[in-house]
Amino acid sequence: MLTKRIIACLDVRDGRVVKGVQFVDIVDAGDPAELAHRHAAAGADEVVLLDITATHEGRGTLLETVRRAAAKLFVPFTVGGGVRTADDAAAVFNAGADKVSINSAAIARPELIGEIGASFGAQAVIVAIDARRGTKGAEDAEVYVSGGRKPTGLRVVEWAREAESRGAGEILLTSMDTDGMRDGFDCELTAAVSEAVQIPVIASGGAGSAAHFVEVFGRGKADAALAASIFHFGVTDSRELKAQLARAGVSVRLPC
Prior knowledge:
- Helices cover 35% and strands 29% of the residues.
- It contains 11 helices and 12 strands.
- It has an 8-stranded parallel β-barrel, surrounded by 6 helices.
């Protein structure tokens, strides 16, 4: 049985880790390098750093922030935000990332997925999807870009399939409806995407307890689950979370 991955997320704005609720009401959570090290030491399988205003501000990724965080890490490290070209991706990899996450740029030019994969391997390309439910729920959930500010008209499941066909190695699926609420992941939406593609799906948005992770790994059929606020603000850490998941019968890599 493949182990389920626990991923700690660092949403970065102006060089600081922040966290909001449903992409608004942003509060400061700390220094990216310090939190990256803390979460990895506590047993996170991977760390994701998302420069959440890079696309909206029309700039590149904060590479010095990436370098500082990468220097503190010994687990796989994904970076997203502001990656618009294969050269941008190369700069992020050179700064210490193991994977890149692309969102708005992939919507604007889907060929970018394959271009990055051709140079660095499909396993290094994560396509991030920010999703908001429609009137029919998961069935007509829509893809948003520019940090969740702009609707695209694309349906989530259809875009996930296309991203896979173009060479994405993973899907990072964030439910804008549940983000920061700590009431649980959107398992219906996660399952819909997981069933539509063969590549791993990372669930994001809504983590509040170990039970929520158990549910998204089971009913939601996720391969990995990402959380931010419950780690940043001391609700739990990956070590304790994994211990609870193991007791619930979920296969996870227990930290030493």
